[in-house]
Amino acid sequence: MIKAYIMLNLSLGNTKKILEEIKKLEYIDSISVVTGPVDVVLTVSVNRLEELYNLTYEKLSSIQGINNISTYIVEKEMLSEEEQE
């Protein structure tokens, strides 16, 4: 399983509509609206890099109002949620 974080910058005033479109997509584990230099952080899990490519370059990039997409692939997790319990 390949895990990645996808950072999105959105057009002002379209957040609710954009989030509804993102919710429909496959591979999305979580959607977080955040403050700072990006507007939304997605956590995604895919089986192959091609699925990640399709998600970012075909699905997300076709949603009106997403201005910028940055993808960060997780190479190693130091502390998973299971280890915190």
Explained architecture:
The structure is a single chain. This protein is an alpha+beta fold and 85 residues long. It has a single domain (2-75), classed as Lrp/AsnC effector binding domain/regulation of amino acid metabolism (RAM) domain (Alpha-Beta Plaits, 2-Layer Sandwich). The protein has helices at residues 15-23, 49-59, 81-84; strands at 2-10, 28-33, 40-46, 66-73. It has a four-stranded antiparallel sheet with strand order 2-3-1-4. Strand 2 (28-33) and strand 3 (40-46) form a beta hairpin. The longest helix is centred in the middle third of the chain and has 11 residues, at 49-59. It is globular and about 40 Å long. The model has no long low-confidence stretch (mean pLDDT 93).
Strand content: 35-45%
Main beta sheet strand tally, sense and closure: 4 strands, antiparallel
Instruction: Assign the CATH topology.
Output: Alpha-Beta Plaits
The fourth-level CATH homologous superfamily is Lrp/AsnC effector binding domain/regulation of amino acid metabolism (RAM) domain
Q: What's the CATH class label?
A: Alpha Beta
Helix content: 25-40%
Span between termini: 22 Å
Number of structural units classed as domains: 1
Low-confidence parts: none
Tell me the series of helices and strands, N- to C-terminal.
Answer: EHEEHEH
